[in-house]
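Final report, closing paragraph on structural work. Over the funding period we assembled a curated collection of sequence-structure pairs, and we close with a single example.
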Amino acid sequence: MRIQHSFYIFLFLLFFFFSSAVQAQREKHQWFEISKFVDGDTFWIINGGGKPEKIRLIGVDAPEARRTGRKEIEHFGKEASAYVEKLLRGKRVRLEFDVSKYDRYKRTLAYVYLEDGTFLNAHLVKEGYATAMTVPPNVRFSELFVQLQREARQHRRGLWK
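Its predicted structure, as stored:
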């Protein structure tokens, strides 16, 4: 009887861990539609629960495209915003997270991938539509972003023209 009980516990635990792994894999590869654009590094998606969620790209900073509060419109801000909107319009994205999932403004912080495999955060820095901006503890790609910014600046791409 005791062996049978242990066997059932083992089966339950195996099922639990397997279903948790499947759920984690499903979430890892979930695709989201863009619902609204804010600027070159922030946009809204419709999350898995059908609710709007504000996404802020990790590790990059696009110039401000509009005047808000204490922030003024910055050089190349409108161009960066328009580029991101054109790139993402009608597309779906996949999100990956780093250490902190939210910033102090309650925005979801993410590395964003397009369905064609484009790593949006890196692409924007590489093409000069954003600069590297490291905010610990989310530093997984900080060295990559700094290198891409250096190359964009050397080749006078985007805001570096």
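The mean pLDDT is 86. The domain at 30-160 is CATH 2.40.50.90 (OB fold (Dihydrolipoamide Acetyltransferase, E2P)). We thank the funder for supporting this effort.
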